[in-house]
Structure formats: C-alpha cells, structure tokens
Backbone:
C-alpha cells in the first residue's frame, strides 16, 4: 500500500512532541511493508522560492514545503506555504498515487492546504486532530485571533467536512468546542511509542554528566518538556519545601527554555529550595532513556494545553511512579495505570512498589497504525 502522510512538522525540525509522533507513524507504516511519502511543512527555510525536492531521510521519503516566515514563535507550525507550490505538490501526489492519505492537525494552514489539494485530486483522507490553537494567551493577540478566524472560515470547515474519517488523539482533543458538530463521528486513537526506541542507553549516566548527585537516600523527581507556564513545573516546586522534610529530594527539569525559566528560579529562591532544583537542556534518544531510568519519580504537572502527554507514556513504559494533574489527554495516556498519582497524593509515589503494566502494549504504534488503516 502507498501511504501519504501530511504533517505540519517532521524531525529533526520540530517544536514539540508532534514531530516525534509523525516520525513514529511513518516508521511503523514502513515496518508493515507500506511505501510511505511524507509531505511536511518547513518553518526553518526562509527561502520560499526554493524548489520542492523529495529526499530520503533516515529511510523515509520526505518533501519539506517552505512556509512563510514569522517572528512569532508560537506560529512557527501554523503559517501557510505559498500557493505557487501547489502545482508541484499535485504532480508529486499524482505520481505517487496514494492508496491511503493521513492528514494531521487542525488550526494549522499547511495541513489544510495539503488536504485541499488531495481532495481536489479525488483522493480520500483521514484527518487526525491534536486539539485546536484556542488557548486564551493566543486568542488575546488580535493578529492571531484574526488569522484563526480567517482559517476557520476558509480552511477549517472544508478540512473537517471533506475528511472520510476524523480521529482525535484523546477524548480531551475530541471535545474541543470547535469540533462539537463532528463529535459523534470522531474516533479516539491515541498517540503511542515504539518500544525499540527505548532499548539504548547513554554510555555515561546523565545525572553524572550534569553533576547531579544521587545516593541511596536521595529521590530524583524528573520532568521533561519545554519550560513554560502551562507545563506546570511550578506546581512541583511549590511542594518541594514539604517534600524535603521527609526526603533528600532533587527536582530535575529537562527541556528548552520558552521564556519561563527565570520565573521557576525566582519561585524556588522564594521558597528556599533553589539548591534542590536542576535544569538541563533538551534531551532525546539514549540520554532521555537513561535519564528516565535513573529517576525515581516522574512528574507531569501540566495545567493546560496537554492534548495527550507522550512523556507520561514514556515514564509509564519505564514503570515509574508518576505525579500528575491528569489534565486533558493525560487521562488517556495514563488509563489503567495504577501507579499514577495526583500531586497532593505524592506520598504514594515515594513508597516502595512493584510496578506492573499489562495494558501498555495498546499504546504501541504497531497496534495504533492498524487502527488507522482499518478506518
């Protein structure tokens, strides 16, 4: 089968967890013996007059379509591509002649533009929703709210109406108000992981590399994600004064700063726990695997905008006790996992426990892609 995957971003250029999701899907489709072509938006190229070229990257055929540049970082994956590329995209799709088309993302111009091309050529497509960009912080910006209104009127409705099937990565994503009209026909198919991606480890321990001391009495709490308010890392910092009364605790946060690091530092200093707080940069691959394995407790304290929560699923795979808010899609990612606890029940996470998880395999991509192909 020939599968066309249309996505707003694709590694190595990706802002959040979406890029990893799309790459995992492409890999798993290939493992099943399918021929896969990825058409991705590309916000890294400033040259919108460059030619579209199909390249093989890590065994995956991919075409990156340059999008209009914007100085507003939150719009990096949202911007449209110049319509001049449509003719070339049409030729590429017709030559590939896909049997199955899978489009990802709502509220982003590039996937909607691609869906219009696909539909105009007479191909059916499955649309997967990862939520919608309707956070109050974004809508307060007049330019963003105006652009979003334009998108809904001229792209969003067609994207939803023309899809053969619509899926959402979580019940939270499914229940966004903008999808109310389609809610009864939306299938929930969550994100997942590829077990083989977690088999390798860094040669040198990550805690050792960053000079984070650990002994038999210490407890390492780990969070992964961009440093921004919605990730809720401040909620764990607020609990550190109470935790340190009973435990030699260290809180490690791994992720790129999105302008919120200083706020977290100020809070830690105000509470007198700055020596228990450690920041390390974005980690992936072997380093991420080692870091999760070395930690004692994993924390996912998101307070908004979490449509699924891949990091929670990764910690679950490593059989770690998890402190969380269960916000949004985290409920789906932690479904049937008995070792995930509310932050206020943190004492349960510190207790010795034997962790079993017989339900984790339903989150493996080899199962997830089969669900998509059955639609």
Residues:
């Amino acid at each position: 089968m020939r599968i066309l995957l249309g996505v707003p971003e694709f590694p190595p250029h990706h802002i959040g967890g979406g890029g990893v999701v799309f790459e995992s899907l492409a890999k798993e489709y290939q493992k099943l013996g399918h021929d896969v072509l990825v058409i991705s938006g590309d916000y890294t190229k400033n040259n919108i007059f460059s030619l579209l070229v199909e390249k093989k990257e890590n065994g995956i055929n991919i075409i990156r379509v340059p999008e209009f540049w914007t100085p507003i970082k939150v719009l990096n994956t949202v911007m449209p591509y110049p319509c001049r590329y449509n003719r070339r995209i049409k030729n590429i799709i017709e030559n590939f002649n896909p049997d199955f088309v899978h489009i990802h993302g709502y509220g982003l111009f590039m996937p909607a533009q691609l869906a219009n091309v696909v539909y105009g050529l007479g191909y059916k497509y499955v649309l997967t929703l990862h939520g919608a960009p309707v956070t109050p912080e974004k809508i307060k910006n007049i330019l963003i709210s105006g652009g979003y209104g334009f998108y809904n009127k001229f792209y969003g409705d067609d994207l939803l109406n023309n899809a053969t099937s619509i899926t959402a990565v979580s019940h939270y994503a499914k229940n966004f108000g903008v999808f109310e009209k389609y809610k009864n026909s939306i299938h929930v198919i969550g994100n997942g992981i590829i077990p083989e991606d977690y088999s390798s480890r860094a040669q040198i321990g990550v805690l050792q590399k960053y000079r984070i001391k650990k002994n038999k009495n210490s407890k390492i709490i780990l969070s992964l994600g961009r440093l921004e308010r919605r990730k809720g890392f401040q909620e764990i910092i607020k609990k550190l004064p109470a935790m340190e009364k009973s435990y030699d605790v260290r809180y490690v946060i791994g992720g790129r700063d999105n302008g919120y690091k200083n706020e977290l530092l100020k809070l830690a200093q105000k509470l007198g726990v700055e020596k228990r707080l450690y920041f390390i940069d974005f980690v992936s691959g072997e380093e991420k695997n080692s870091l999760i394995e070395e930690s004692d407790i994993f924390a996912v304290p998101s307070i908004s905008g979490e449509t699924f929560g891949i990091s929670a699923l990764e910690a679950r795979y490593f059989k770690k006790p998890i402190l969380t808010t269960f916000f949004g899609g985290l409920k789906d990612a932690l479904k049937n996992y008995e070792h995930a606890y509310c932050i206020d029940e943190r004492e349960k996470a510190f207790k010795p426990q034997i962790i079993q998880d017989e339900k984790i395999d339903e989150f493996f991509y080899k199962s997830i892609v089969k669900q998509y192909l059955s639609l």
Notes: DSSP finds 14 helices and 14 strands in the chain. The longest strand covers residues 35-42. The first helix runs from residue 18 to 31.
